Amino acid sequence: MKRTTTSAHKSDGFQRKKRKHSFVKPARDPRDEPSPENVEPGSTAVRSPSPFIDFDGLSRPSRGTRERKEECAVKAGTRLQKIANAVRTIIECLGEDPDREGLLQTPERYAKAMLYFTQGYQENVKDIVNDAIFHEGHNELVIVKDIEIFSLCEHHMVPFTGKMHIGYIPNKDVIGISKLPRIADMFSRRLQIQERLTTDVAHAIMEILKPQGVAVVMESSHLCMVMRGVQKTSATTITSCVLGCLEKRDKTRNEFFSLVGLNR
């Protein structure tokens, strides 16, 4: 179950055409194929039952992210220079002088910053989790709340920031609690929209841990809505993705929302 709310007033209800996101396409690399235990007997599917992410999360964005993950130092330098050249062009098109003192090193600085902001493309869930799954026989709600999130809106490439709350009910296995913020960071350090980011994190935890249920909620402020457009500086967007028993059981789901402070 997913839900999205925005504290600003809703605009007139008009429907937008549904877009086909690239994550519904078949995997482009053999390493993105689902593991045998995730494929039903006789199934011809080439993707895991959760179409939102793969363990490395790379088949959804593009083949280019695979190349970035595996490139050598020379290719990495070429990539940095291409970004810097593009930034210099932007500065010129804005009517500024890219050769003046204050802007002389800006293209390279910006290029390095963008590669840092999107370093989640170079990470994968399996490496993050490693062996930090433990059989404890625990079956009560586990929550890590107020995880600070920084990401870039893919529509305008400006930041949106906020907090994410992650909860799950183990199926006897628990995950090292530091891994939950790390998974959130991996997906947030990409070009994103908040709705997909919330869903990516929930499905990744469901896939890697196989718990009874998962709930992920994110509250954030979008600079694309603060600095331009409607310019609503106080608007907060809330998204959620609830899976498994947390979706099916109202009492358990409400307990999660209450503990993270959303039943207000």
From TrEMBL:
Q: Does the keyword Nucleotide-binding apply?
A: yes
- The protein's role, per its UniProt record: GTP cyclohydrolase 1 is the first enzyme in the biosynthetic pathway leading to folic acid.
Extent of the signal sequence? none
- Its source organism is Uncinula necator (Grape powdery mildew)
Which terms in the Gene Ontology molecular function aspect does this entry carry?
A: GTP binding; GTP cyclohydrolase I activity; zinc ion binding
Q: Mind telling me which InterPro entries this protein's record contains? A: GTP-CH-I_C/QueF, GTP-CH-I_N, GTP_CycHdrlase_I, GTP_CycHdrlase_I_CS, GTP_CycHdrlase_I_dom
Q: NCBIfam families from the entry? A: folE, PRK09347.1-2, PRK09347.1-3
Where does the GTP cyclohydrolase I domain start and stop, copy by copy?
83-260
Tell me the domain of life. Eukaryota
* The name this protein goes by in its record: GTP cyclohydrolase 1
Biological process (GO), any one: tetrahydrofolate biosynthetic process
Report the top EC class in one word: hydrolase
- What is the E.C. number? 3.5.4.16
Q: Per UniProt, which keywords does this protein have?
A: Allosteric enzyme, Folate biosynthesis, GTP-binding, Hydrolase, Nucleotide-binding
Gene Ontology cellular-component terms listed: cytoplasm
Copy the pathway line from the protein's UniProt record: Cofactor biosynthesis; 7,8-dihydroneopterin triphosphate biosynthesis; 7,8-dihydroneopterin triphosphate from GTP: step 1/1
Q: Could you tell me which residues belong to the region Disordered?
A: 1-70
Q: Which family does it belong to?
A: Belongs to the GTP cyclohydrolase I family.
**Could you tell me which Pfam families the record lists for this protein?**
GTP_cyclohydroI (PF01227)
